[in-house]
Amino acid sequence: MDCALAWLALIPDGQFVLRRIAGARSLVHPTTGRHLFSWRRLGVALGADHKAVQRWHGQAMHRISQALNDPSKATRPSGA
User: Using CA atoms in the order 51, 53, 54, 59, what is the torsion angle rounded to 10 degrees?
Assistant: First the structure.
């Protein structure tokens, strides 16, 4: 899990909202398995529509997957 959380660093610093959304959605209750932050709760926290938050989460996941699949990325965190 530590390695997966380190992937958040693959999202550029200028896109801190994407990083915040990805980090919040990665938090899951240990016994129930439910996300601690629903889409609507994130939308309220960010002052945005929950559908926009879902779209931004998809963009964050896309950026992480691109960075992990691109061997030329020098900003890859240690252990990845």
Answer: 130
